Amino acid sequence: MTKDQPEILLEDDAGVARAAELLGEGRLVALPTETVYGLAADARSDIACARIFDAKGRPRFNPLIVHVSDLAAAEALAAVSPLARDLAGAFWPGPLTLVLPLREGHGLSPLVTAGLGTVALRVPAHPTAQALLSAFGGPLAAPSANPSGRISPTTAAHVVEGLGAQVAAILDAGPCAVGLESTILAPGEASVRLLREGGLPRDAIEAMTGPLLDDTTPGKVQAPGQLSSHYAPSVPLIINSDLSDGHAVTIGFTAADGGDLSLSQSGDLVEAAANLFGHLHAAETLAVSEGKPAIHIAPVPETGLGRAINDRLRRAAAPRT
Ligand code: TXA
Ligand code: MG
After folding, report:
1. What whole-number distance in Å separates Cα of residue 305 and Cα of residue 45?
2. How large is the average pLDDT for residues 161-172?
């Protein structure tokens, strides 16, 4: 008999040990991080990494983010330039991914790097992610734990809803604190390219590096977070500051916008980011149960984390291709 639900593991020593054991067998485990839940697999195993693409229904072998426990573990896989080291020193562990040149003998599956000469590395801050990385003792490839193109998961329930038993187990650590995927940077010799806006606000980075070079154009890098349609609910999403359409499920930024839901009652962008994907999941469920044909959402101010929130909204609202 095949089971149709994943094992739900508590974030205690026994849960972490069981998750590490499953990963060692080449199975998939949903991993809580401070950004979103990841679909983790042994980054050195071709079969385990192939299961990630199969479970997500990813149309192509796009490169995956690799999670490691610290800078020393990152240096075993990639060449870390002085500029990259400064960024890591300032923002790791945390919601930052660095794209770095691969080191000889890195041992990663070619499915992780998609044949590129670089690898995207991240040191997560979440204590359960750190506990699993040390129990497993190796690098973990983990894209967001959602079917390809759909809303990213910020709770264990979102993972069950999207992937079911395609994931062997879920380490349940409650809702993710940041709620947006990591910011992705590619540090060069003297300048830094921004590949994806995310949970680490651009201004915090620019205070250290000076202006970032924008490289977030849809279609330029053929990777999921950069596709123009992504993070999408099953019901059409429309960005509209007028939420008075009674036929739609409505999400306001603040309570003053008067939607069915608000991203943050008081207009706090950090709270709005943490609520974004959960509210999109809830609005989708509400639209389906009430037979409403669309979700209308108000945009947020284009400052701090608001840039990454609006980026996700534009992609979720883009025409589906
Ligand atoms: O917060 C996050 O980053 C989450 C959590 C689970 O850590 N992970 C995540 O992974 O969002 P994923 O697979 O959904 O996004 C991977 C992104 C791709 O969109 C791609 O842009 C970038 O990582 N990427 C990976 N390898 C790359 C490379 N070698 N060069 C450029 N971009 C790369
Ligand atoms: Mg994703």
Report:
1. 35
2. 97
What pLDDT score was predicted for residue 185? 97
**Whole-number Å distance between alpha carbons of 286 and 54:** 29
- CA 59 to ligand 2 centroid distance, Å: 13
Buried b (16+ CB within 10 A) or exposed e, 70-104: ebebbbebbebeebbeebbeebbbbbbbbbbebbe
Please report which confidence band the pLDDT of residue 225 belongs to, taking 50, 70 and 90 as the band edges: low
Q: Which of 56-70, 147-161, 210-224, 280-294 has the lowest mean pLDDT?
A: 210-224
Nearest alpha carbon, ligand 1 atom 18: 223
Q: Which residues line ligand 1 (CB under 6 A)?
A: 33, 35-36, 38, 63-65, 97, 99, 116, 118-120, 122, 142-144, 181-182, 184, 195-196, 221, 223-226
State how far the Cα of 156 lies from the Cα of 182, in Å rounded to an integer.
19
CATH class of 7-214: alpha beta
Q: What are the sequence ranges of the domains in the chain?
A: 7-214, 237-317
In which residue are the tokens 């999921």 written? 224
Look up residue 169 and give its two tokens: 């187990």
For the chain, the straight-line distance linking the first and the last C-alpha, in angstroms and rounded, comes to 37
